Amino acid sequence: MPKSIVFSEHEKNKESKIIHCELLPVPYQSLDMDGNILEVNQLWLKTLGYSREEIIGTSFVDIIYPEDIESFNAKFSALQHRGTVLGVKFRIFNKNGTIIWFSFEGTCEEHAEDGSRQTHCLLFNITEQKTTEERLRESENKFFLAFDASPDAININRLEDGLYIDVNKGFTELTGFTKDDIFEKTSLDINIWHDPLDRQRLVQSLQREGVCENIEVKFRKKDGSVTTTLMSAKIISLENTPHILSITRDISKLRAAERQILEQNILFETMFNAIDDGVVITDTDRKILYANKGMEKTFGYLPEELRGKTTKILYAASAAYQTAGKRIFGKDAQQEDKVYVTSYKHRSGKEFPGETFGVKLYDQNDKWIGNLGVMRDVSKRMERKAERDRLIAAIEQTRDAIVITDKDAKIKYVNPAFEIISGYTSEEVFDKNPRILKSDEQDASFYQDLWQTLNSGQTFKGRMVNKRKDGDFFTEEATISPVFDPEGQLVHFIAVKRDITEQISLESQLQQAQKMEAVGRLTGGVAHDFNNILGVIIGYTEMALEDVDPKDNLYGLLGKILNAAERSATIVRQLLAFSRKQTISPKVIDLNSAVANMLQMLHRLIGENIDLTWVPDSDTLIIKIDPSQIDQILANLCVNAKDSITGSGNIIIETARVTFDQEYCADHFGFYPGEFIQLSVSDNGCGIDKENQEHIFEPFFTTKGLGDGTGLGLSMVYGIVKQNGGFINLYSEPNKGTTFKLYFPSCDEENRKTGKVVASSNRKSWGETILLVEDDLTVLAMTQKMLEKIGYSILPASRPSEAIQIAEDYSGDIDLVFTDVVMPEMTGKEMAERIQPLYPNVSVLFTSGYTANVIAHNGILDEGVQFIQKPFSLDQLAHTLQSILS
Predict the structure, then answer these.
(1) Backbone angles phi, psi at 232, to 5 degrees
(2) How far is the C-alpha of 536 from the C-alpha of 158, rounded, in Å?
(3) Regarding the domain delimited by 398-499, which CATH topology (the fold level of the hierarchy) does it fall under?
(4) Residues 6+ apart with CB under 8 A from 575
(5) Class of domain 9-132
(6) Would you put residue 242 in left (φ > 0), alpha (ψ -120 to 50) or beta?
(7) Class of the CATH domain delimited by 150-250
(8) Under CATH, which architecture does the 587-754 domain have?
(9) Rounded-to-integer distance, Cα 655 and Cα 614, Å
(10) Cα distances (angstroms) measured from residue 448 to each of 233, 457, 480, 496, 774
(11) Rounded to two decimals, what is the model's pTM?
């Protein structure tokens, strides 16, 4: 690299400077004190691709790589103060966007005539040097990864003085010495040689040949124990300095086994035949010289029948025999390969799995003289293993949570179901106490009874409320049992837990339905009898009015009695509607037409300050119902919606055709398969809380003030829907509005004849990944199950923040975000806007219990955004996803 250039006095003339700059062999630039470019030479323009007109007067910082700007500014400031800087390295964008590395040298010049200052800078292109350095770093990294990952002990010592330069992890594991222990020390300093002659043999071989291969040496470990190793070493050059590279393998176990065989040779006959497993000794050609009595038990052959035959007779196939020879006796055989399971053949011809162990035998002169083989029938063990594997698979796949703790109640195992139910991973709960799930919903006496039962050796069964990782509560039925060893000592506790939160919810829904049914029967009976009584009162009152002078005070009193009786009759009619015993005249009608005919009256009912929006389905929607009942439904729902709105607001009436399949109905109480016509009424009023939703359809239940309502409007709607074979759903949250969805059986002739549910011919996906976000855990689990059933890969999240974290951490592609609209923390739209920059091509599908029009009216969704309304069937969901992802 050229030295820094300082301009002499006679070069201060501008013209001569320009000429001088063009002669420079490197790019040159002149900057003013603000970093603006005053002048560059032709080589600068050629290197960076700009024209002089494009670059003169612009800020040099504008073409510097952003991460290097701060460093450059600091050096440029130093240049202004010190008058010169050398070797400043930074990156610059050329005109086509390519990054070039430069080394920067500059001087600062002050003009005598006006005191102004400017810098003169040389740019040396070091891109190739930087690329070479990066490749070298990558190469070094790969070497050190391989170096440290080797299972053998590797150490590098300087040849001159024997000092350790580096050792790998295998060395520290073999010897027990850490890198700090051997720093600036030799093998003699740490006294690693058990026999000094071993070191002498190594040194002599290296001095003589520069290499030493596979010599057996004994090492003394840090703890004083001695181990037998196989060592190879070679002289190598590092940084032009000779070093010794040594590779050592621990063979102490192998040598111990060989010594044991030789040392116990005297007792061979007794021990040989005392072994239950089949044992043979062969020559080097694998011909059997000796066979023990265990061979008869294992293979059915007497020992004398096997002598002189090769061990091939014992294998089920020739390939198994050859594989055994290679794995146990081959030149490349490894110690860990010498015990393995193969397929043997009994004398009867029956094949069975057997475990093989083989080792070569050597004489005192270290000459290979034969082989020892031990063969064990592992049929029963394999069967037990298969049974254990089946048990483990069952535990891993069961929907019940399995928790195993030690005797101190520290968790040692949980199955995947536990992770799904609790939200904790197995790593998070390992060695923790199960009290991490404690919700404080049970008092101290509950847990006292639990432990008293377990400590007495009995099994505890009970129901408890626990807390998930995300803070939500869930109810589980738990069976906890103590586990004892053969000596009767307590060793474990095992708990089988079932999440019954959804079951309790379904039971509650069933109880509510049964209660409504019972109330309906009771109400119907009472209303019927009461109707008769009112008929008598009204009849006699009307006759009495005819006999009384209108001017008489009694006439007015009788009129009040008649009015009260007629109002009571109206209430009775509403009760009969709830109990489904009112007299009706069903007709086949088009629902769209019936609603359209009511719009004018509904406008008058709700008043001018509330907008009424009518969104009919484009299809003709045929149902069978008494037309007056549609009027009653719309009037009651719209009046209720109006009462929930303070000031101005919106009410939306919609119709649609929907289909529910068997799978969907199995997860939604009260639904049954088929094609239905949906009528929904939505508002953006004050909403209904969860507690009141449980009673909203009960007769005489009302949230209005005293005297403002009878509490029969919604119960009448409920009764009409049930009377016509349909069902009703309510979606509402406080301050979020309310949507009532009513489903009536479709009266389409073709469907009525076939009685079949329309199903998709192909609902399968192409394996796309979906980020599923739903704050209702029951709906989350159900939707995840639906999506996985049709082949999608699911990333579930119960909160927007959790979904964003998953999106940031996930290493693959996310094809679609499927999210609820109204959630805690933020809306689905706000969450999607934060995820989309991470995955520019991701699609988004919104869902809600509210209709799309209500959500859009609240300003949450823009027109054209993909939306599917709850509840949705599996077919609806599959078709929607296919249309988006295709």
Answers:
(1) -130, 145
(2) 120
(3) Beta-Lactamase (3.30.450)
(4) 523, 524, 526, 527, 699, 712
(5) alpha beta
(6) beta
(7) alpha beta
(8) 2-Layer Sandwich (3.30)
(9) 9
(10) 67, 15, 14, 19, 37
(11) 0.36
